[in-house]
TrEMBL record:
It comes from the Bacteria. This is ABC transporter ATP-binding protein. InterPro entries: AAA+_ATPase, ABC_transporter-like_ATP-bd, ABC_transporter-like_CS, MacB-like_ATP-bd, P-loop_NTPase. PROSITE patterns: ABC_TRANSPORTER_1, ABC_TRANSPORTER_2.
Length: 234
């Protein structure tokens, strides 16, 4: 496998008036093509900051962010917008669907702007929502809305799928089925997934576990005993 992503000495400083907050303090890690990465850490450790920088939604104060063969750290807003649109799929804790578009339209709307997008209806079939194509978000359960959000991210055919607490608002069984979906997608399509969570049990399904502490990497470990989500309990 070859490295798809490299963070090299990445720092991020936020300024609020006179106050400086060092959210990232020299972060280094590598993610290989096709890897399922789980990122763990306490609240405020810097996980979302890493995900936002990786997704081109925020910029680093210093350091390099290599994606493919390019350093996106030096990119301007226009380049980052194209990168976000074409290369990165996002799944958040709250589904952020467009309320006045149905499931199919939500997926089509996101996918259409991407050159290599997949067929929206096919993807909704894949996530088990073939019978809910014309349903609006308000007519869908939380788990179903998250499936639409995953379909929307995947239909772009992204290089990288970033998931920030994707099961945070779901009950146990629904959360597990959403994780199963991500696991299947990773295995079948080889899409690289980076999943941020507070739930340490979920790390058992990862290829690589990255722990973040106080703006630094605490540890990076390959998971030699990777488990299917069906076998994980919490
Ligand atoms: N836009 C911002 N402006 C100022 N400070 C910020 C901003 N975003 C994050 N921070 C600060 O940076 C640090 C890291 O925050 P971050 O959201 O990355 O942590 P996290 O590990 O994702 O936490 P959580 O698990 O609670 O979501 C925190 O001290 C936070 O307060």
């Amino acid at each position: 496998m070859r490295a798809l992503i490299e963070f090299r000495h990445v720092t991020k400083e936020y300024r609020i008036g006179e106050v400086r907050i060092k959210a990232l303090n020299g972060v280094d890690f590598t993610i290989e093509e096709g890897e399922f990465v789980v990122m763990l850490g306490a609240s405020g450790a810097g996980k979302s900051t890493i995900l936002n920088i990786l997704g081109g939604m925020d910029t680093a104060t210093s350091g390099q962010i290599i994606v493919g063969n390019q350093d996106i750290a030096g990119w301007n807003e226009k380049q980052l917008t194209a990168y976000r649109g074409e290369k990165v799929g996002f799944v958040f804790q709250f589904y952020n669907l467009i309320p006045n578009l149905n499931a199919l339209e939500n997926v089509e709307f996101a996918a259409e702007v991407c050159k290599n997008h997949l067929d929206a209806e096919d993807i909704l079939h894949k996530v088990g929502l073939q019978h809910r194509l014309r349903s609006f978000p308000s007519q869908l359960s939380g788990g179903e809305q998250q499936r639409v959000a995953i379909a929307r991210a995947v239909a772009k055919n992204p290089l990288l799928l970033l998931c920030d607490e994707p099961t945070g608002a779901l009950d146990y069984a629904t959360g597990k089925s959403v994780l199963k979906l991500l696991e299947d997608l990773n295995r079948e399509t080889g899409t690289c997934i980076v999943l941020v969570t507070h739930n340490t049990a979920i790390a058992q399904m990862a290829d690589k576990i990255i722990k973040v502490k106080s703006g630094r990497i605490e540890s990076i470990a390959m998971n030699r005993d990777k488990q299917s989500v069906e076998r994980i309990e919490w």
